[in-house]
Design goal:
The chain contains 13 helices and 3 strands; from the N terminus they run αβααααααββαααααα. The chain has 374 residues and is mainly α. β2 and β3 form a beta hairpin. α4 packs antiparallel against α5. It is globular, with a radius of gyration of 20 Å.
Amino acid sequence: MLLNLLSAEWFLFRFDSPMNACRTIAIWLSAVLVIVFALIMLLTSGGTRKKCAKISLIVTIVYVAALSVLFLSLSFAEDGIKPILFYPLLALILVLGASGVCLYFRRDKAVFLAAGIATGAALIATLVCMMVHFSTGDPVTDNGIEDAGTVNTLALWLLAAVLLAAVVALAFLFGRKDKKGFDSRSIAFAAVCIAMSFALSYLRIVKLPQGGSITLASLLPLMLYSYMFGTKKGVFAGMIYGVLQAFQDTYILHPAQFLLDYPLAFSAIGLAGMFARTDSLRYPQVKFALGAVVAGVGRLAMHFVSGIFAFGEFAPEGQPVALYSFIYQASYVLPDIAIVIVVGALLLSSRTFRHEIERYTLAPAAGEPVAEDK
């Protein structure tokens, strides 16, 4: 595991290209903002703390949207993203940012409905363009898809189906207390959280040679969404996010491998909210941490199976492929989840933040008024 990290690309001090320079600056700037926000929350109280928390939220939304636009533009300029993917994704990010700002200033039925419709339409357009892109052109030069080679197709499909069934079963088992169906509120917040995770995914601390990165808590928004709205909605949001992740460093050997490494791996992140409504657990930090561990294990299982069948050729001579896959995948999945758990636990230690989370965790159905702060 240590050797994998030593041979990986580190981005804490990389200025060899505009993309890496911006990534390095953004990582440190984000760390500074987190520290500043934390100090403000510690040094203030009462109404001042609530006001600071609201300001921090809107700053975060605008900051994340700006990062998304910046990194997408740099990827486009460096030919990392094709026009058919760049323009709809850029429109999606702008819509999500605008929705987040609107929801910050006003939370009623009309705003939730408008945000839900706009983000849904932008997301559908993005996914359609993505399907067109990956189904046309030369697989290797245009889509990053390589020959499946010796991939054991039947076994890969069977294991993908089993893991998918496990995630769905857990989502429904622990989501029995969730509110049924999506409403405009949950759709709007799903879109905002997906966008935030997508933007933060560009803030890589380290990238491993055969793919996989440790990021600056990029999965935290998705996990908090699952914690707020439940596992069923969380799994769906994670699946959408996983599809969007295929925009970055696409590497596809086989359709089942694509499912395991992208939609299914990140759908498991939606299990993070599985203990949010467990009354026997008193502390929200514990509920979140336990759910995050399960989500991380689920994601690791997806990448582990994919690695065995699709990336075994990279295993050192004499080392079992299964052992290589586990060590390689764990070397970035586990640290990535650990960062999320630490940051999430710190956020949930704030009474003001917990209050904001509970407003939506326990909120009425869309169309009914959402309680405002006194």
